[in-house]
Amino acid sequence: MKVKNVGQGILITGTDTGAGKTHVACLLGKRLLREGIAVLPLKPVESGCAPGGDGRPFPADAAALRDAFASGLSVSSVCRYPLSAVLSPHLAARAEGISIDPARIRQTVIDAIEATDIVLIEGAGGVTVEIREGYSFADLARDLSLPVLIVAGNRLGVLNHLKLTLCYLHSEGISLFGVILNDLTLEPFSAREPNETEVRRIAGDCYLGRIPYGAAFLPDEVFSHFRRSLRKIANHSSVPQLRRY
Predict the structure, then answer these.
(1) pTM above the 0.90 mark?
(2) Cβ neighbours of 45 (radius 10 Å)
(3) Average pLDDT over residues 178-202
(4) How far is Cα 146 from Cα 130, in angstroms, rounded to an integer?
(5) What pLDDT is stored for residue 15 in this prediction?
(6) What is 43-105 written as a DSSP string?
């Protein structure tokens, strides 16, 4: 499936659930908007939604994205499938008797890409998480030629999770947009600084930088590297390939 070359979609995934995808996407979207770049958010499927005022599942992450850099949108246009159960989307949908249509999600992404400069598409958990049984966020990225931005949560285990994610993307022929290390706590732990050294080594030229815990603004270094990756895509040059582990 070919996407009309108008805007650019980027799939934002995590090394694991709770890596900080929504926070990073909000910071990116706000910075892009401040720089005069038209940007739209999508969170196609969100599970674990608490009831809203109308009793229906309310997608808090999608609302945070909307509030951060797309206040003119309805929450329902950001998230097509809000689900209650705290489960992988395909399991939550099954439990609630909801049929998720990947074709509808793909068309939503295409329409957004054709309407703006950049679309930030936030996944759920890691890139192999299934949207519906047999169809994952990696499949969505492959179908629509979306490069993947990995948010690596700075905690114990991140190096293994990052390498596994990179290996999977490489094996599936999915382009890597970049890797951002996201601090998840102010509490001291012995791996905090060594993790950055290793993530920088593992990601190489694809390392975009680190976001401090609780940051209200995107660090200039991260945005500079983000724009570098955008230029590579615009120039149709390949994203640097990482060695296989």
Answers:
(1) yes
(2) 28
(3) 95
(4) 17
(5) 98
(6) --EE-SPEE-TTSSEE-HHHHHHHHHH-TTS-HHHH-SEE--SSS-HHHHHHHTT----HHHH
In percent, how much of the chain has pLDDT > 90? 91
Q: Kindly indicate the confidence band of residue 235, based on its pLDDT and cuts at 50, 70 and 90.
A: confident
Residues annotated catalytic, as ranges:
43
Q: Are 199 and 181 in contact (CB under 8 A)?
A: yes
Residues 6+ apart with CB under 8 A from 216: none
* 110 residue type, one letter: I
**Token representation of residue 207:** 């390392």
Could you say which architecture CATH assigns to the domain 8-234? 3-Layer(aba) Sandwich (3.40)
How does DSSP classify residue 206?
G
**Both structure tokens of 16:** 């694991």
CA dihedral 161, 163, 169, 170 (to 10 degrees): -170
The conformational region for residue 142 under phi > 0 = left, psi -120 to 50 = alpha, else beta, is alpha
- Gap between the Cα atoms of 130 and 244, Å rounded: 24
Domain ranges, ordered by start, for the chain: 8-234
Strand partners for 121: 11, 42
Reading the block at residue 135, the tokens are 């169809």
